[in-house]
UniProtKB/TrEMBL annotation:
It comes from the Eukaryota. GO terms for biological process: methylation. This is Putative methyltransferase. The lineage of its organism: Eukaryota, Fungi, Dikarya, Ascomycota, Pezizomycotina. It comes from Lachnellula occidentalis. Coiled coil: none annotated. GO terms for molecular function: methyltransferase activity. Pfam families: Methyltransf_31. Residues 35-151 form the Methyltransferase domain. The gene is SPCC70.08c.
């Protein structure tokens, strides 16, 4: 089986989207990190937020495990963590496609106090065939009574830009093909609530 192509470049991401972790204030408030928490970050990217969280976890027995489908992002995250010896033991990273959480037994043992995802699920949930399995993987990772916190694009997010992009691409390949390659899924609140309650 051929390796999945990595469409992410951590250096380019840091140059153009380094603001994303800085917008995670609400997510961090909701996550309410405690020194003893065991946390899973789904779609951790270059690990910047993980390193910030590890500052708190390193004061106790807690740890954070970041997963992302991009080898480039995970390599950068590991390098950044190893450059910070005071937190290196509190954070780990692994290349895992979040739509495949169910295929990773170590993540399916109800061992995480908290699971979170910041600005990644609108990419992760793109393939409709994988959505239910994604949420089952999250549920199985959490301890009973655990917390799942996420922030993602929702219905109507970047609507004008998305419409313009689809229009331009559809001129070359047709609207159906353009919709097939649309990289995002922006659900409404009703859809998300239903999926969470169902899972």
């Amino acid at each position: 089986m051929a390796a999945k192509q990595d469409h992410w470049d951590s250096a380019a991401y840091q140059n153009s989207a380094s603001f994303v972790p800085k917008l995670a204030t609400k997510v961090l408030q909701w996550l309410d990190v405690q020194e003893g928490d065991v946390i899973l970050d789904v779609g951790c990217g270059d690990g910047v937020l993980n390193l910030q969280i590890a500052q708190t976890l390193s004061k106790g027995t807690g740890m954070i495990h970041g997963v992302d489908s991009s080898e480039s992002m995970i390599a950068t995250a590991k390098k950044s963590a190893s450059a910070n010896p005071s937190i290196a033991n509190s954070c780990t990273f692994q290349v895992i496609d979040a739509t495949q959480l169910l295929t990773h037994p170590a993540l399916q043992t109800s061992s995480f106090d908290k699971v979170f995802s910041n600005a990644a699920m609108h990419w992760i949930l793109r393939p409709s065939s994988q959505r239910e399995a994604f949420f089952q993987g999250i549920r199985n990772a959490l301890k009973p009574g655990g917390t799942f916190v996420f922030e993602m694009g929702g219905m109507g997010n970047v609507a004008e830009m998305r419409a313009a992009l689809l229009s331009v691409v559809s001129r070359r390949v047709g609207i159906e093909r353009a919709r097939e390659v649309d990289p995002w899924f922006f659900p409404d609140e009703v859809w998300m609530r239903g999926m969470l309650e169902e899972t």
